[in-house]
Design a protein that fits this description.
With 110 residues, this protein is an all-alpha fold. The longest helix has 17 residues. The radius of gyration is 13 Å and the shape is globular. The N and C termini lie far apart (32 Å).
């Protein structure tokens, strides 16, 4: 997947998309049912986009798989992921938030 400009190199994901989503929801205080629900509310759309960007970036799924998982069109997710990537590159606050989310998700279970 080259959405973020990086080619994946046979990386083995450290967790499944389902596990990753569960942790993402816990960290970001969003319900998993809301992410896969039919709501088009901006906050939920942004949460889906962030989850998709992180999942693609970590090699957990491609956009077609994410579209199926989140019940969204892959083209729509692609545009949303590109927006997140642009914000990450141009907005320090967004970049910092992404790092915080990644660090929290990747913490081992206690």
């Amino acid at each position: 997947e080259r959405v973020t400009g990086k080619a994946r190199v046979n990386e083995r994901p450290s967790m499944s998309l389902r596990q990753f989503t569960r942790r993402y929801c816990k960290v970001c205080l969003v319900k998993q049912a809301e992410l896969v629900g039919s709501s088009r509310a901006r906050t939920l759309s942004e949460q889906r986009a962030m989850l998709a960007w992180l999942a693609v970036e970590h090699g957990l799924a491609n956009l077609v798989e994410l579209g199926s998982y989140l019940h969204r069109d892959a083209t729509t997710l692609s545009r949303a992921v590109q927006k997140i990537d642009t914000k990450r590159k141009t907005n320090r606050r967004v970049a910092r938030r992404i790092r915080e989310i990644i660090n929290a998700i990747m913490q081992p279970d206690r």
